[in-house]
Amino acid sequence: MSQEEHGTAPRRYYLETWGCQMNELDSQRMAGQLMQQGILPTRDPEEADVILLNSCSVREKAEQKVYSRLGEFRVLKQERQQLLIGLCGCVAQQEGERALKRAPYLDFVLGPARVAELREVIAERRAGHRVVATGFPDERSYELDTISRDGEYKGMVTIIEGCNKKCTFCIVPFTRGPERSRPLGEILREVRHLVEFGFVEIELLGQTVNHWRNPTGPEDFADLLEQVASTPGVARLRFVTSYPRDFSPRMVAMFARHPNIANYLHLPVQAGSDATLRRMGRGYTVAEYHSLVRQLRAARPELALSTDMIVGFPGETEEDFRATLDLVDEVQFASIFAFCYSERPGTAAPRLDGKVPGATAQRRLQELLALQQRIQHELNQSLVGTEQEVLVTGWSPASDRLQGRTSCHRIVHFEAAPGLAAGSLTRVRIHSALHHSLLGSPLGGASASTRPPSPGLAVLR
């Protein structure tokens, strides 16, 4: 006899997450709601009574990827009619009613601005209705005690949702909606809650995180950084993603004022040509980007920068691409996330002239990645012989070493030592460098630790 026939709630959920940190936090919020109802996590979808796919639509073929994965769950639905399957996240917002028509075995569609309504959506489905919950309501709930925080060291806090920028390639304004900042007091309460719970690293999240403004007062992102960095127990503070045009001198000054702000900043530039930046609608020039980099490194000389790059954007000439290589060589990014341009529905870029052939875009991408690999290895080599404070994140895959992150966000592999566990801070001497990570030896014991991990979330890249 099934659980439904017994009149009891489902006991297991399976949740997959594709995409950025905001998707990860949305999944933690949904997991918390399920666990409040006594529905526990599983890593095996065949054991699940509820399957959730939390999707990302930033890259090409996102929809095909989602429907292909949903199709793999179809057999499970045929075997167990009481199984609930939900599509969540950005593709859910993008597809809406179309998802229910295309996948008749799908039970509900839940957009990223509606994740707090998961309990109600499940209840409505159990009452016999297939549900589409999308759009961007003015009133949204953030229940701190119902978030199933995944991991042992980093607590993520959404401070601003959506985006008001008009970048011609970007689908985020359509899937995440207009900008909406959370109040300062609410954010600070969540930060203190996380510190009390044992998290030593706080990461502030937003599509344009440094465009945060307090909706109930005059404070801007510089004021928020000041208050969060000054919160007792915040050993390390990160934020993502920053928009170059939104940095002010006061925000830059926070890097000099607060050493617990990490020596790392993700600062997407997207291209190294003014002509390409204009077509992208980015609102700044290459010279202005370089000026901001100089200001940031004056405030924090050891600051490591990462960035996003798009190659093969419509109208990109070989000269434009060479300008991108020049920028990468001059700025010396610690890492880059580079992709060939792909059309996204509803954006303006597909209407631009000058489509770049796929083979040309791929050749440019490989040239860019080869340059970055050389730069990255040289930067990693420069850290050999230094001592780094490392936040332990767990065991290295396929080895008996621990791994962790430096303040500058490098991955370090090192020998286990007494007292070291995920969530610990320790000093590590770097003795060798690889292309994408460092090797070192611990110099002391742990200074902090936290709780055991939750098995409920599978984060897919």
Keywords:
461 residues, five-stranded mixed barrel, single chain, disordered N terminus, seven-stranded parallel β-sheet, alpha/beta, 15 helices
- Kindly, what is the distance between the CA atoms of the first and last residues, rounded to a whole number of angstroms? 38 Å
Question: Low-confidence stretches at least 5 residues in length (pLDDT < 50)?
Answer: 1-7, 448-461
Instruction: Compute the number of helices.
Output: 15
Helicity level: 25-40%
What best-fitting shape do the alpha-carbon axes yield?
A: globular
Average pLDDT number: 91
Q: Biggest β-sheet: count, sense, barrel? A: 7 strands, parallel
Taken as a percent bin, the fraction of beta residues is 15-25%
Class per helix and strand makeup = alpha/beta
The tally of beta strands, per DSSP, is: 20
Rg calculated over all Cα atoms: 23 Å
In short:
The chain contains 15 helices and 20 strands. The protein is an alpha/beta fold and 461 residues long.
Structural summary, described in words:
The chain has 461 residues and is an alpha/beta fold. It has 15 helices and 20 strands. The strands form five sheets. Strands 1, 2, 3, 4, 5, 6 and 20 form a seven-stranded parallel sheet that branches. Helix 10 runs parallel beside helix 11 and helix 14 packs parallel to helix 15. The longest helix has 24 residues, at 358-381. The radius of gyration is 23 Å and the shape is globular. The two termini are 38 Å apart. Mean pLDDT is 91; it is low at 1-7 and 448-461.
